[in-house]
Amino acid sequence: MNRTTLAAALIVMVAFTAGTEGADDWAHYLGPNFDLQPSAKAFKAQSATVAWNAHVTTGMCSLTVADGLLYTMGNDGTEENKEEARDFVYCLDAKTGKEKWTFDYPCLLEPRLHPGGPSSTPTVHEGKLYTLSKSGHIFCLDAKTGGKIWDASGQQYKPKKPWWGFAASPTIMGDVVIYNVGDRGLGLNKDTGEVVWKSDRGVVAYATPRPLPTTMFNRPAVALFTNEAFLVLNPATGQSVATYERPWQEKSNCNAITPYIHNGRIYLVQSAHGMACLSVDGNVLTQDWLAEDGKYASEWHAFNTHVIYEDHIYFLTKGRGSGTTGLCCVDAETGSRKWFEEKYGFGNLMRVDDTMIMLSEEGELIWGKLTNATFKEAYRQKILEGLCWAKPVLLGNILYARDAEGAVVSLRLE
Length: 414
Known about the structure:
Helices cover 4% and strands 43% of the residues. It is mainly beta. Among the domains are: 60-167, Thrombin, subunit H (Beta Barrel); 173-205 and 207-297, Methylamine Dehydrogenase, Chain H, CATH 2.130.10.10. Strands 22, 23, 24, 25 and 26 form a five-stranded antiparallel sheet that branches. A hairpin with a 2-residue loop joins β10 and β11 (176-179).
């Protein structure tokens, strides 16, 4: 390859990397690198102090922060007004919590085993905000004013039994905004909303599309995980980049954990079959292992995030039936269980260096050190009263979190 060709290839690769707004932003679901890992290199906080509180409407989505603005969504539905319920997109001042603007449209609350409301988290890119409702409403808004730029719909891909509705967050690569809508996703032009590529039929799909390192396939690629399959696609065309032969159809639960990367391999968490580790050889994905220890008969990964540190995977599981809930440690090389600690509730995790941070579903903020495949708790504080399934956001020493009932909090970690 000559220098001109190499330069052109590098430009194409850069053009199709996921868009972020800056080092101090959390512009899309799961943060700067789609791994819920903040950009901070060290964590030295000893306590957390509330900076502000705000309130929005009911929703299961998380938060995004860009250019000093915070975005989230909610729904005002109640038993009395359920036919007139509306979704709201909120923009708050990230420093004060004061409302800057809202955008709303008709949408059902749909409370099913949770309070209901939107599950998809807004995405910010180049001054635009991209949203997806539980029913498939797609909007592109002006991030500063809330004015509608374009709208589209994924409702034609609504599966027959959409238990949780549309839940994946929009992912932008190059000129395409990608939604996990349908059996092979939906790609729209990010500036116009015009269809670039689309699915053939509707399937249950909850996991957010994950940009893969360009070095993995020597080309731009996005991972798409549905309840039927794991796909690696070209973000510009929707065509297959790599194949994975194992059909992982799951009708009863939810494959909602976004695939993640460690040491050049892809990790999947399937709600019925366990945790799998895939290696890449050209355009073929090979299953290195499938660990029943990553699932267990009575435990549920659901949608929580995993943390990897020094080749150990940490995650919180939620008990089913007679099962227990707690923190689990699994060997990243083999998938075998190292230990299980029942004293921790279900929730989400993030990591800064050797510090692991939890937000439990009961609203407890917890952190501590990871050392030699152990977790030593150092701090615990109740920060929210409602159900906390939404992932927290950490920018510098400011942590943002919300609960399903609409309480939003900003804390200084000092």
